[in-house]
Amino acid sequence: MECANLGNRRRRIVALLGGATGSGKTRLALEIAQAKGWAILSADSGQSRAGLAIGTAAPSATDMERVEHHLVGDLAPDAEDSVALYLDRADRVLSNPGPDLLAVGGTNQFLQALRDGMSASPAPDPVLRQELSERLRSRGKDVLWDELAALGTPPHDARTNPVRLVRALEKALLVRRGVQGSSRPALAPGAPVFALAVNRPELHSRLEARLAAMLASGWRDEVRALAERVPDTAPCWKCIGYRALRESMDLPDLPERTLRSILEETRQYAKRQETWLRNRLAPRWVPADGSPEAVLREFAAAVEGIS
RNA sequence: GGUGCCAUACCCAAGUGGUAAGGGAGCGGUCUGCAAAACCGCGAUUCCCCGGUUCGAAUCCGGGUGGCACCU
């Protein structure tokens, strides 16, 4: 079993920055990190994969020359990932000397794990999970729910949510076999959490503009390249837009409704991110509707005194 | 100008005399190891407007307005 506390920390995470997709995290982080002499630790499940830079709006090569970045594009597109694996990667970054880090990203679960750590729980077991998924398909969720209830107190959301049901049952069965798993310490205990607040109409129009920009800078080619070397069951295809673009890969022009549905999914994702931030991370909100300069001033004032 | 068809929420839409289905969008929420995932909750005191018939009208009748189609 892995040890709860891994390598010694040679640097620390001074603050966390979240916000909906398109709220301007990447750009702001770059400016502030440069001004304060920090490096950036990405907390983004999509941007952490290689080959998805355009569609996930990852920091550019130029950005990464200006400021030291970590955990961007360092994971294979078809690699399995998890919160715990993310923490392993982050821990590795912390065990090497370097500037203090600003953790930035849209994957709130990653941000939360950095700040709060994780309690002990058995690691996922792919074989068991596969088995349970098949059982779910053949027997239905009620049967699995009963099994789960017989093993202890199930999480309330497992009743209706198949993904959560499978995980909860997997966990319960592994615990019964004696698998304990290990808890994970917070890598950024007590670090302040900031989040960019952009009003919805403004965010929506930014997302629309960003989608056009992504397509103009070759998103479709990125998808074609990915389709050539990555099986269509790989996790990377779950990122917004990738599956839709792969399906219309051979069409000369992108159908209007594909565009529209990518935009819709992105808006819905942004809304979920804000819900999570609001209710789980309780961040200090930084108004970010204004010009980049104004937002930078605002944020600079907010982080004044940190580090 | 004439004739016909249509008008129900932001969009699509069921309902054809008994008290407004459903889907999408949007909004809110859940989530202790797949999270850009998966899942849950919320919508019309009213059916284009005015009048009439009826115990009762989104539904029937008359008029108006708007849209579509065809004809001239």
Defining traits:
307 residues, 6-stranded parallel β-sheet, 12 helices, 6 strands, RNA-binding
Structural features, described:
With 307 residues, the chain is of the alpha/beta class. Helices cover 49% and strands 8% of the residues. A six-stranded parallel β-sheet has the order 3-2-4-1-5-6, with helices on both faces. It is globular and about 55 Å long. The structure holds one RNA strand of 72 nucleotides.
Strand content: 5-15%
The residue fraction in helices comes out at: 40-55%
Largest sheet, strands/sense/barrel: 6 strands, parallel
Figure out the total of helices. 12
Strand order of the largest sheet: 3-2-4-1-5-6
Question: Structural class of the secondary elements?
Answer: alpha/beta
Mean pLDDT: 94
Poorly predicted spans: none
- Overall shape: it is globular
Number of strands: 6
N to C succession of SSEs: EHEHEHEHHHHEHHHHEH
CA distance, first residue to last residue? 35 Å
Rg of Cα set: 20 Å
Element layout with pairings:
Layout: E1 13-19, H1 25-36, E2 39-42, H2 61-66, E3 69-70, H3 83-94, E4 101-104, H4 108-116, H5 126-139, H6 141-151, H7 162-176, E5 193-197, H8 200-216, H9 219-229, H10 242-247, H11 256-281, E6 284-287, H12 292-303
Parallel strand pairs: 1-4, 1-5, 2-3, 2-4, 5-6
The chain binds one RNA strand of 72 nucleotides through helix 3, helix 4, helix 7 and helix 11.
Concise synopsis of the structure shown:
The protein has 307 residues and is an alpha/beta fold. Helix content is 49%, strand content 8%.
